[in-house]
């Protein structure tokens, strides 16, 4: 026990009319939705980096948070873990996620960094066993240090590629030891700032070969979790090789990995790629590579990834509608890749941010489930494409361009436009949210 969250009670479900801040109004973990407990639908996870490692800086200002565990010692890392698991207990969070950089201080060399990761891995394992909290996924931070300034797997220096391989191997080993349910590759620096110094084909080939090595190692050690890629557009480089879901799928197909790797999709990154969250989720579902989500939001008046906690039920409902259509999570879950505003200094702020996000997600998922069970949206979608179920339409798809063209003259076709009914569909959604 620590005293960082002193006097903050465990958060329990108290219903929509609950008084006071420290209660769930919509998230009842045991509530049954579409035959499954709400906790098992949502599979909430806390992001170690934003909640416990981030100092409160932004592109224009430095540290605003003062935390007793900030420091480059293993003692500080263990105190950080103590506080983290205390927060998991208060919130009833079933999962957490981490980068290697979040949970241990970097050493003077790789061997020392790896030994520290092993040591803190044992400490985390003891806490997981004592509390029942599980690891949703681990990942290696290959973007913060200056060694990664020109990329990791895509770096022009082969020695950096080797260092990246060592970093991922070490983090995969610990993730495997902690029974992590996924391993994530996040390539924010895997891109370029100018083509003037970039061999685009070579970097792409190296990134593909690196991912093949990761998948091979997964099977070698018997890791049962999923390998996930998280698309990351616009920041911090001009171009990324993992820009969005469709781009990553093409990359996976090129290197024969479409059956091995799935997607961890973040709301904020979807927006930076010029898409909606639900678009990226639907695309991953249709391509068979849906895995997990990072739940947050951007400030739409800012042009960068602000990683705020979700607070808009209609947006979240449309996202979970696609998640449920994909069959829900298997190894994946809802990871709050979200951070406090740099002015939100109090321990209570950290707790209440998660409480609010969990309630918003619960409301969104329940609305999504209600829309699916109602069936109106899917019925109207099916009606719109009903013509394609006719034998003539199916025969046309199996035939030639000439045969399709001949139908116009042979059958006297003169198709008339039909309404897409968008406003009507939006009105239906608003009945539920």
Automatic annotation (TrEMBL):
Active site: 99, 102
Keyword Isomerase: yes
EC number, as in UniProt: 5.3.1.5
UniProt KW keywords: Carbohydrate metabolism, Cytoplasm, Isomerase, Magnesium, Metal-binding, Xylose metabolism
Enzyme class, broadest EC rank: isomerase
Residues binding Mg(2+) 2, per UniProt: 266, 269, 305, 307
GO molecular function, one term: xylose isomerase activity
Source organism, top-level taxon: Bacteria
Subcellular localization(s) per the UniProt record: Cytoplasm
Note on cofactor: Binds 2 magnesium ions per subunit.
Major subcellular site: cytoplasm
Catalytic activity, reaction form: alpha-D-xylose = alpha-D-xylulofuranose
Gene3D superfamilies: Divalent-metal-dependent TIM barrel enzymes
Cofactor section: Mg(2+)
UniProt binding sites for Mg(2+) 1: 230, 266, 294, 337
Assembly and binders: Homotetramer.
Family the entry assigns: Belongs to the xylose isomerase family.
Protein name: Xylose isomerase
Organism from which the protein derives: Litorisediminicola beolgyonensis
The encoding gene: xylA
């Amino acid at each position: 026990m620590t005293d960082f969250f002193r006097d903050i009670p465990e958060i329990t479900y108290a219903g929509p009319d609950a008084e006071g801040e420290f209660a769930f109004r919509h998230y009842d973990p045991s509530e049954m939705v579409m035959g499954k407990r709400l906790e098992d639908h949502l599979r909430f996870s806390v992001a170690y980096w934003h909640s416990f490692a981030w100092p409160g800086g932004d592109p224009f200002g430095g540290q605003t948070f003062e935390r007793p565990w900030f420091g480059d010692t293993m003692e500080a890392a263990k105190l950080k873990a103590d506080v983290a698991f205390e927060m998991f207990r208060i919130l009833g969070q079933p999962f957490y996620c981490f980068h290697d950089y979040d949970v241990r201080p970097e050493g003077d060399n790789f061997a020392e960094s790896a030994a520290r990761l092993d040591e803190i891995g044992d400490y985390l394992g003891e806490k997981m066993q004592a509390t029942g909290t599980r690891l949703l996924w681990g990942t290696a931070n290959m973007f913060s240090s200056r060694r990664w300034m020109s990329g990791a797997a895509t770096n022009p220096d082969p020695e950096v590629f080797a260092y990246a391989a060592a970093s991922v191997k070490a983090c995969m080993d610990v993730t495997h030891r902690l029974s992590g349910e996924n391993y994530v590759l996040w390539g924010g620096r895997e891109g370029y700032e100018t083509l003037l110094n970039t061999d685009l084909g070579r970097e792409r080939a190296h990134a593909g070969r690196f991912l093949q090595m990761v998948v091979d190692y997964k099977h070698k050690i018997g890791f049962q979790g999923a390998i996930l890629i998280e698309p990351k557009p616009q920041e911090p480089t001009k171009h990324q090789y993992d820009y969005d879901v469709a781009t990553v799928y093409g990359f996976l197909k090129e290197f024969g990995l479409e059956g091995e790797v799935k997607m961890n999709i973040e709301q904020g990154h979807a927006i930076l790629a010029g898409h909606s969250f639900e678009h990226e989720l639907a695309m991953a579902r249709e391509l068979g590579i849906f895995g997990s989500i990072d739940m947050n939001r951007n400030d739409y008046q800012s042009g960068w990834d602000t990683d705020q906690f979700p607070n808009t039920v209609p947006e979240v409902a449309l996202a979970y509608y696609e998640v449920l259509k994909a069959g829900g999570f298997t190894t994946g879950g809802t990871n709050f890749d979200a951070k406090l505003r740099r002015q939100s200094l109090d321990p209570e702020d950290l707790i209440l941010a998660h409480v609010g996000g969990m309630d918003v997600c619960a409301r969104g998922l329940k609305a999504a489930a209600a829309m699916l069970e109602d069936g109106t949206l899917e019925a109207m979608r099916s009606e719109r494409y009903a013509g394609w179920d006719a034998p003539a339409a199916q025969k046309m798809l199996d035939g030639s361009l000439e045969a399709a063209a001949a139908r116009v003259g042979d059958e006297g076709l003169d198709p008339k436009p039909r309404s897409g009914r968008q406003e009507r569909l939006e009105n239906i959604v608003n009945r539920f949210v």
